Amino acid sequence: MANFDHIIVGGGIIGASAAYHLAREGAGSVLLLERNTLASAASSRAAGMVLQVSRNTTRTAMARQTRETIDVLVDELGADVGFHDVGSLRLAASDKCIAHLDAMAADAARHDIPFEWLDPQAAAELIPWLDPSLVRKVGFLPSDGYVDPYMLSMAYARAAAARGVEIRQGTAVTEVLTRNGRVVGVDTSAGRMESDSVIDAAGAWAALLSARVGYPLPMAPVRSHYWITKPNPTYGGDHPVITMPDVGAYARPDVGAILLGIHEPYSATFDARELPDDPAVFSPTVGEDHWDRLAEAAENIARFFPGIVEAQFPNYVAGLSTYTPDGKIILGSVPGLSGFLAASGCCGSGIVLSAGIGGTIADLALGRAPSIDIAPFRPDRFGPIDPFSVEFRDRCAASRANKSK
Ligand SMILES: Cc1cc2nc3c(=O)[nH]c(=O)nc-3n(C[C@H](O)[C@H](O)[C@H](O)COP(=O)(O)OP(=O)(O)OC[C@H]3O[C@@H](n4cnc5c(N)ncnc54)[C@H](O)[C@@H]3O)c2cc1C
């Protein structure tokens, strides 16, 4: 029977980053198991925004780690990882959003992340489609940008494999094995594998895996989606990513077009037990017209992007993010069991937090104190809940609606 020092379940960006960070720390034999193909679920559908600063200073520390790791991976692999260092702009038109932007400026300073105030007119020079007339304050973060999320996931996986991690695709974990209050291995579609360290990085299915050890994680699969316009020279070149919290929207360039995403007042949520194993056969927008969602948001977005009225959106991308009620990730041990670590509930930020999460989970798996305070991310922080219930899922959808507001 195969025996490993660490087994990671799930080959999305979080599992790949955990594998890379474990290997970088010389953690012994590491096995990464993915039942489909690497990065075939949420990690290839993301908008890929790398926005480092928030009002949550621990989150900022983790995001900054990702930004730094992107450069490390480029050096290590000697290859592009799909990062566009275009910077990001955050607009504020209301008192509330101005207060948030001021708090973010303070957090950027705390973490030594470059932050500049821009005149709204100067922002419009960077982004030709932007109408700045209602904008009162603009923050510019030149070291932000966006990344091809598939390329970054694969970069972690390739760098991990180069350091000796064994990656098996097409291998499903069907059971987590425990003995006397500790993990001892997993059963898979390719047989039993032993390890006293198992990491649950199973994305939208993470609560199903942890339910195998009697502790379904407090998170729910929530739909995220965006639209992409037709390319049009009036949209400008590879301009900064832009977030517009006043109207719950974000945008970034996409080869001459605009990728536009929204944080709806209510996002569709799903019972993880009813998801198929293969995300390729599932649409989170079944039975609903996604144009209705865009139309509902368009009037508000037109305050900053008047051209939305004539824009054509031939492309639509939807996927499942995982959210928690407080908008914070899940990171750490589940109660009453040693050797089982959860890394999930990324709240729509798994790409930008990938190195912070991977590095922290590697520290935990190696029994080291992580560099960040993980207490706010404890899996048991919500007390007894049923993560599959409609009531709990509604709380997770509400946390997506409030994201970045
Ligand atoms: C439309 C959209 C836009 C987004 N935009 C952004 C953004 O701009 N910036 C950002 O930071 N984040 C963004 N996100 C969120 C980001 O995509 C996720 O947080 C991140 O991809 C989660 O990675 P993951 O590895 O946890 O999950 P996934 O990528 O879903 O990977 C989980 C993997 O686990 C595998 N698995 C599950 N169960 C098993 C099992 N039993 N055995 C073996 N394998 C198993 C699955 O097959 C899957 O491949 C967006 C998400 C969506 C959907």
Write a short abstract of this structure.
By secondary structure, this protein is an alpha/beta fold.
Bound molecules: flavin-adenine dinucleotide
Helix content: 25-40%
Q: Give a count of the beta strands, DSSP E runs of length 2 or more.
A: 21
Side-by-side strand order of the widest sheet: 7-8-6-16-17-18-15-19
Q: CATH class of the largest domain, anyone?
A: Alpha Beta
Mean of the pLDDT scores? 96
The CATH architecture category of the largest domain equals 3-Layer(bba) Sandwich
**Strand percentage, roughly?**
15-25%
Q: Give the CATH topology of the largest domain.
A: FAD/NAD(P)-binding domain
Characterise the protein shown here:
The chain is of the alpha/beta class and 405 residues long. It folds into two domains: 2-51 and 150-219 and 325-388, FAD/NAD(P)-binding domain; 83-144 and 221-322, D-Amino Acid Oxidase, Chain A, domain 2, CATH 3.30.9. The chain is built from ten helices and 21 strands. An eight-stranded mixed beta sheet has the order 7-8-6-16-17-18-15-19, with helices on both faces. A six-stranded mixed beta sheet has the order 10-3-2-14-21-20. It has a four-stranded mixed beta sheet with strand order 1-13-12-11, with no helix packed on it. Helix 1 packs parallel to helix 6 (149-162) and helix 3 (57-77) packs across helix 6. Bound molecules: flavin-adenine dinucleotide. Flavin-adenine dinucleotide binds next to helix 1, strand 3, helix 2, strand 15 and strand 19.
